[in-house]
Specification:
Elements (H helix, E strand, L loop, with lengths): L9 E4 L3 H12 L4 E4 L3 H11 L5 E3 L3 H6 L6 E4 L5 H13 L5 E4 L5 H13 L3 E8 L1 H7 L2 E4 L3 H14 L2 E2 L2 E2 L9 H29 L5 H11 L7 H11 L22 H12 L4 H14 L1 H7 L14 H34 L5 H7 L11 H10 L10 H24 L4 H14 L5 H12 L12 E3 L7 E3 L2
Parallel strand pairs: 1-2, 1-4, 2-3, 4-5, 5-6
Antiparallel strand pairs: 6-7, 8-9, 10-11
Bound molecules: nicotinamide 8-bromo-adenine dinucleotide phosphate.
Nicotinamide 8-bromo-adenine dinucleotide phosphate binds next to helix 1, helix 4 and helix 6.
Amino acid sequence: MTSSTAIAQIGVTGLAVMGSNIARNFARHGYTVALHNRSVAKTDALLGAHGDEGEFVRTETIAEFVGALEKPRRVLIMVKAGEATDAVIEELAAVMEPGDIIIDGGNALYTDTIRREAAMAARGLNFVGAGISGGEEGALNGPAIMPGGPKESYESLGPLLESISAKVDGVPCCTHIGPDGSGHFVKMVHNGIEYADMQLIGEAYHLLRDALGFEAGHIAAVFTEWNSGELESYLVEITAQVLEQIDATTGKPLVDVIVDAAEQKGTGRWTVKSALDLGVPVTGIAEAVFARALSGVRAQRQAAHGLASGALAEKPTDATQFAEDIRRALYASKIVAYAQGFDQIAAGSTEYGWNLRPGDLATIWRGGCIIRARFLNRIKDAYEHNPELPSLILAPYFREAIEQAVDSWRRVVATAVQLGIPVPAFASSLSYYDALRAQRLPAALTQAQRDFFGAHTYERTDAPGKYHTLWSADRSEMRVE
Ligand code: NBP
């Protein structure tokens, strides 16, 4: 039903896929929702198709839209990230009043959110950068929501967001994340983990296909079985469904007729760039982003087709054993990917003084979002037990899970290499694990080389201070600090 007199508790501007579904989600939860879109056709299309799902207020101009809202006003922006978001914020800020709340639910870069929050705060407005995950379906039926911004604004906004979010064991998949850009930062890392998770699943599929010769339907059954155990997750579940899909035109599995060049919208790349700035080794996420890029260089790939493989090993003879090895390697690599993502969140929290609570993130990612998975309960437990965990890998449950998987993990990576099957994320995750547990890394040699050509100094294992060797003179050592 639409009304022109109703006073709306929330306004949504930007009524494309995400905005229209979130607006319907609010209405279905009993809120009166003011609707606005740059081109009014989308507003009318939404009202035409779903206007009977709740109370909506149709508006055409920003002034009309803002005027339809209860004070303090709450406006959710769901437009294309970047310049469009800045344009809409400016239009809103011009007519909103101190104390009102602007929420950006798009995939904004967190540094943009920090800038926007400061600019709005200077004008007395509350700006909330809210990461929203779950795609179209989640937006309608319950997404995971990661709102940042001023804590006070959450008092007025939190109940609305929590009511439309997914719930797991009755707990909303939404909580106040922290100040300014923290909500969009954790959403960005969430997406980075999603990239890694998808790449790992892709590598498992590749091995089942090319190392064991399984057809898509057979692999679907394997993923379905895996989804009943510790790997249970949305991404594994939809992988099985995708692999079962038969193409109507050719009668072949759809996956076999889709071009093998993966695209990306940028949040994975942002995660890696941010990790580089923070100095956090998110190797699994980086490999996933690069793997998509590599798949996309189609001309180069075509030119390289037929390059020598060298002698390849025989395929594994015990398919059941090797499939189980792949399952374990997937689980171990996935633990590494999440551990790295949580390390990046800890580093971002320190860098920006956000005081983020990793256990809360694991809690709200259990439902609604793309990376929802059974093992997030384990991550939640691990951080609840020890909020200062140096690495997720060191939590007793994960340590044991990896110990149980490590032999399989090594067999899978070694076999993939011998068969010429690329497994960048499996291999880099295993290398990360081995590097982390190594007693001595070759970094000592790196330090000596740096000192040799750049007098960058080094520390000694047996004495405090910084040292430099006079490499181009008599090679004696001096203490410099
Ligand atoms: P899009 O990202 O495709 O954006 C389309 C919307 O932006 C339309 O409402 C369009 O209005 C509006 N818009 C544009 Br484009 N330029 C504008 C401008 N200068 N001023 C005002 N409005 C403008 O929509 P979406 O896929 O629904 O995503 C919305 C946001 O949610 C994005 O930031 C996206 O990254 C994020 N997100 C998407 C997903 C997902 O699964 N799709 C998941 C999570 C987050 P028009 O109708 O007049 O052209």
